[in-house]
């Protein structure tokens, strides 16, 4: 087997409009396709960044809460590479998104910062250089 890359990450929300606004208007992902699935009373929103398909956002009315932050079993967090962590944090804060303090990775010496989406999904900004 030869894996080429990670194709996408699926995120479930019970706050579809808030999550759509967050990923599209605040984080800057592009809508590839939005489908309402009537049989499930659910939306599926496909998002891309820089022309690469990245995130599937699913809406469901009745979802379980995340077990803990961020050390729940399963996906710990989703990290986004940025050129300038400080500028990205300032952008988030201008849009009312709370962020943790910027830290330095002790192994790579690169800056990073955690924040959360409207569903409490831990997200990270990580410096490209």
Automatic annotation (TrEMBL):
InterPro entries xrefs: Fosfomycin_Res_Enzymes, Glyas_Bleomycin-R_OHBP_Dase, Glyas_Fos-R_dOase_dom, VOC_core, YwkD-like_dom
Entry-linked Pfam families: Glyoxalase
Keyword Metal-binding: yes
Keywords of the record: Metal-binding
Keyword DNA repair part of the UniProt annotation: no
Domain of life assignment: Bacteria
Annotated signal peptide: none
Stored CDD domains: VOC_Bs_YwkD_like
Domain VOC: 5-128
NCBIfam families the record matches: PRK11478.1 (NF008551)
Protein name, as recorded: VOC family protein
